[in-house]
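Apologies for my clumsy wording, but could you write out the amino acids of a protein and the tokens describing how it folds?
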Amino acid sequence: MPRRANAKCPFFCCMSYKDKKQATITCQPIANNLGFNVRNQIVFESFSEQRDFAEIFCKDMYDTCPYYKKLYNGQEDAASAGVRACARGNGKGDV
């Protein structure tokens, strides 16, 4: 199950561990996804880039995140109300 104890971003779902092939951060699905259960995944060149991105945007200044600004801005109420949820059990990671 993903752990989000350190993430402030309401759309953070999970991030991959270093034992995985790719460094990724997965965000919750956007509203009005036309019935498809599609999540957004950011893929990084390295795990150090993933960690740096998470430290800046997921843990602290999520409202300045380029993905948050383009995809999620204005949807905070839906996230806090639990309208969208990440698929549990297939992602891991702590920020």
The radius of gyration is 13 Å. The first strand starts at residue 12 and ends at 15.
